[in-house]
Amino acid sequence: MYIPVLFCVLFMWAILHVHGDKYERICPGFGFIIPNGPCNDTCVNDTDCVKYLKCCYSPAVTPCGYHCVPPKINIPKKGKCPTNSTHPLWYLCDVHFCDVDHECKKSCTAKCCPNVCGSLICVEPAK
């Protein structure tokens, strides 16, 4: 169980070490997870974290709250997010499919964009 977590942390550290200052660092999203019990913050902002970590709200960890975590690196794909779409998930609320463009793997051009409800989904960019 600890090996995959360690691998993930090391992988993110390697990406951040190479690209950390060039691209936007995004807090990982957890969709619409409702935390259990009282939350406990271990940071207030990014300056409370060691280099390459980001202070992010994490409802999925125990205790929930703001913690220093490896961020996701946003390497944007070309194009802009559409303001309207015929995508079947365009009007579906309370979903979370991506945080950054490279998580949209169905097509090499798909971007991670907010739909009408603000939920993040993978859609083709506006033409």
UniProtKB/TrEMBL annotation:
Coiled coil: none
Signal peptide: 1-20
SMART domains in the record: WAP
Gene Ontology molecular functions: peptidase inhibitor activity
UniProt keywords, alphabetically: Signal
Segments forming domain WAP: 74-126
Xref: Pfam families: WAP
GO cellular component, one term: extracellular region
The name this protein goes by in its record: WAP domain-containing protein
